[in-house]
Amino acid sequence: MKNLIKKIVLTVGGNLGSISNGIHILNSHYIGKNDLPKEIFHDLLFKLSKQADFICIEDAVNTIKEKTHQNQKLIAFTFDDGFEECYTKIAPVLSDFNTNAAFFINPGFIDGNENYYQNFTKNIVHINKPPMTWEMIQELHQKGFVIGNHTMDHVRLVGLKNDELDYQIIAAKKRIEEKISTDCNFFAWTYGRNSDIDQTALKYCLANHQFVFGGDNYTHYYSFKNDRVINRRHVEGNWPISHIKYFLSKKKVYS
Ligand SMILES: [Zn+2]
């Protein structure tokens, strides 16, 4: 019953509301929990493209910094955890709409053996989807997608010692850079809420990356540390357009 009411509020609210001006940085993981066709994501972007413009993630972060976004509705995309469908389905659809995304990946997931895979999918991300291979990631990078760091093993960045932070943040960044032969300047912390990262870990992230992404309060977008820490709005690729419009009609306040 509660879910039904929530659904009605979202649908009615979404149909009435319109996407608010400003930059919306979306954070997703996949099209859906099940193996869904890419047409579902294509259909969503088609509907969104009637109401907003898509912007490359690098342009989005620079525009937030320059504060030149007040009168436009702009959407940029990011995907966490580096599942294979980012390569097989999501990236081709984004290319159809002439935009890109940042894909935040976990090198440990890509390099891991069968035991690692079982533990990662069952106990950490709770979904049985394979990761992209390094070859897929290299190809996406060459096509203009941004490859970002999401820690080595998808750990929660709270209470870790320096050697653990070195491994999870810096060694992961180096592994990505070794594979794509480019600086890895984007980082997204795992689980996304502000309570999922402590000050020491955030300092590590900022010392080693240009931009650091979370995903906390959907009613306010915000940025801090000189627009280098940026909040994102969670959606997935199979959500109804009315729900997404409802969330994107909320006010955004970047610092
Ligand atoms: Zn994640």
Question: How would you characterize this protein structure?
Answer:
This protein is globular. The chain is α/β, with parallel strands linked by helices. Strands 1, 2, 3, 4, 5 and 10 form a 6-stranded parallel beta sheet that branches. It has a single domain (2-248), classed as Glycoside hydrolase/deacetylase (TIM Barrel, Alpha-Beta Barrel), CATH 3.20.20.370. It has helices at residues 2-16, 38-49, 57-66, 85-96, 107-111, 114-124, 134-142, 162-180, 199-208, 241-248; strands at residues 22-28, 53-54, 73-80, 101-105, 146-149, 186-188, 211-213, 223-224, 229-230, 233-234. 44% of the residues lie in helices and 15% in strands. Bound molecules: zinc ion (ZN). Zinc ion (ZN) binds at residues 80-81, 150, 154, 190.
Question: Topology, pairings included?
Answer:
Layout: H1 2-16, E1 22-28, H2 38-49, E2 53-54, H3 57-66, E3 73-80, H4 85-96, E4 101-105, H5 107-111, H6 114-124, H7 134-142, E5 146-149, H8 162-180, E6 186-188, H9 199-208, E7 211-213, E8 223-224, E9 229-230, E10 233-234, H10 241-248
Parallel strand pairs: 1-3, 1-10, 2-3, 3-4, 4-5, 6-7, 7-9
Antiparallel strand pairs: 8-9
Helix pairs in contact: 1-10, 2-4, 8-9
Bound molecules: zinc ion.
